[in-house]
Amino acid sequence: MANNDLPNGFTGYSRKKPQGFQSAADAIRRNASGVGVSRARGGATPSPWGSSAPSGGANVPRFAVPAGQKGGLGTNPLASLPVIESGGALANVGESVIGAREATEQASPAAAPAPAQPRSCKAVYGSRGIFAYADDELAPDGSPLFDPAKLATIPETDRRWSWVEVDLTAIRHNVMVARRALTKGAHLCAVVKADAYGHGAVQCAKTALSAGADYLAVATVDEGIQLREGNVFAPVLVLSQPPLESIPLLLAYKLMPSVYDAQFAIAYGEAADSFGVDAPYHLALNTGMNRIGVRHDEVVEFLRHVSFHRALDLVGTFTHFATADCPETLDFQIQARRFVEAIQAMVDAGFDPGIVHAANSAATLRYPAVHFDMVRFGIALYGLQPCDETRALADLRPAMSVKARITDMRAVPMSEGVSYGLHYRSPGSVIICTIPIGYADGFRRGLSGRTDVILKGRRCRQVGNICMDQCMFEVDMRSSAMRTRVEPQIGDLVTLVGREGESIITMDDLARTLDTITHEVAIGFGCSRMARVYK
Ligand SMILES: *Cc1c(COP(=O)(O)O)cnc(C)c1O
Which atom of ligand 1 is least distant from the CA of 325? Predict the structure, then answer.
């Protein structure tokens, strides 16, 4: 720190603003006056389409065929196929009648003005098969034909036959496991970032807190806001330092940032001061992971630089291990030692480090010496083992399972193929069953032909390429004749991840097949469009 670079006692280093520096107070003022403050984002760039053009390109005419005219797709192999007559217009096979109609409307808006605002759920097909809006469709008794309240009662699991099941009692159990493992006096921070690793942030946060967790951690400001809006009032730590522009949100929603940058710290303190509130934060130390944080041997210098600010409140100091889940322990020991030395240096220089924390799930279970004042329990909270080394140490219970129901099935004759590419060929004597789950639901395409599903307690091979929204599996009728015969039926329950009778398929199985970690697999399912069901 340069000696002439001294704090002025209130507004910090505003006399010496670096190029492009914008204090939080500036940001707030600009926000209030409606002037954009998005320096870093693309939002300020004028759209080449002008201000009224929708970004999705909805005004761009599709390659629809004008009514009564054949398409100009000279090379279309379907062009010689018969055309379908519909609503007085001729459309090529494969052409959407609706698309053609829309294109016609756009070509002559006066003839058929589009409704100013598409109306909610009451779009119907008119008698000519043409899309129309009917806001006031009534049943003969005068009641609404489609009562929105009744429509809303159709469960998500009956809208699509695939879903994620989350067992909150398993999460409760895993919190107990963690608490039993904790050294005396250490607190438990439940890491609920990424929508609680796909398990649902608000539900998991509430469950973990009621089972004895004290603290919550998220990755982003919006994840923190989601917790507050879900009526979660425990302390929330954001495990990153968000952009300066988000500071008012941190203060308004009482979210503590991780801090490692002096400019951020001072802007945060200034903003808090201007609102008349405190600016609590956790200091992030880099002890070897080299992701975020103040270097472990520069922490005292950093604190001398920022600590003058009266609103800044150092609530905790933490680091993160790069190799807590690795068999080799030397790098872990080096990080742990650097962290302890940094904390000692802080204390020696007269700074109170607050809540000292370092351990993720793997370190919590493997290394009680680094529990300090708090541990950050993530993956293990959801019942997934952080690494092989922890299997013998903790009896965790997986909370997530993935289920589907059979939507179609057929006997596929010998040597016929299944799914895109037809790479799987039927050996005969198999029933191919279809389930509505695909890679857009986290059932990664890389698992194609490399995983099983469980039907009535029996493992069946997933076969053929996993599609975006569906996939197939094989029920071998010969081998099933040897044991209890499995006769698949449409509507039968299928387990893709979880236990059914004696059979079990784990996130670990899928993660190993995909050469990744369970975090990614669970988030893939849990953060997809699939419904989430709690039990
Ligand atoms: C995600 C995260 C954790 C939790 O890690 P797990 O391995 O899931 O327990 C802890 N600390 C930090 C800083 C993290 O980013």
Answer: 7
- Selection from 136, 146, 193, 73 nearest residue 526 by Cα: 193
Q: Which of 223, 355, 360, 516 to mutate to test the pocket of ligand 1 (most atoms within 8 A of CB)?
A: 360
User: Are residues 225 and 253 in contact, defined by beta-carbon separation less than 8 angstroms?
Assistant: yes
pLDDT the model gives residue 140: 86
Residue 10 in any domain: the answer is: no
Separation between Cα atoms, residue 346 and residue 307, nearest integer Å? 12
387 class by beta-carbon count within 10 Å (0-12 exposed, 13-18 middle, 19+ buried): middle
Instruction: Look at residue 147 in the predicted model and tell me its pLDDT.
Output: 86
Secondary structure (H, E, C), 82-140: CCEEECCEEECCCCCHHHHHHHHHHHCCCCCCCCCCCCCCCEEECCCCCEEECCCCECC
What is the CB-side half-sphere exposure of residue 185 using CA atoms within 13 A? 7
**Domain end residue (candidates: 58, 92, 108):** 108
In a domain? residue 73: no
Residues with CB under 6 A from ligand 1: 191, 193, 239, 320, 360-362, 376-379, 386
d(CA 248, CA 26): 12
Residue 115 lies in a domain: no
- Give residue-wise pLDDT tens across range 195-251: 999 999 999 999 999 999 999 999 999 999 999 999 999 999 999 999 999 999 999
Three-state secondary-structure class, residue 460: strand
Residue 71 contacts residue 92 (beta carbons within 8 Å): yes
From the alpha carbon of 380, which atom of ligand 1 is closest?
9
- Over 60: is that where the pLDDT of 49 sits? no
Q: Residue 76: its pLDDT value, please?
A: 52
Q: Is residue 48 part of a domain?
A: no
Atom of ligand 1 nearest to the CA of 197: 8
CA of 513 to the centre of ligand 1 (A): 23
Distance from the alpha carbon of residue 408 to the mean position of ligand 1, in angstroms: 41
Q: To which H or E segment does residue 355 belong?
A: strand 355-359
Report the predicted TM-score, pTM, of the whole model to 2 decimal places: 0.77
Number of domains the chain is built from: 3
- How many A from CA of 321 to the centre of ligand 1? 9
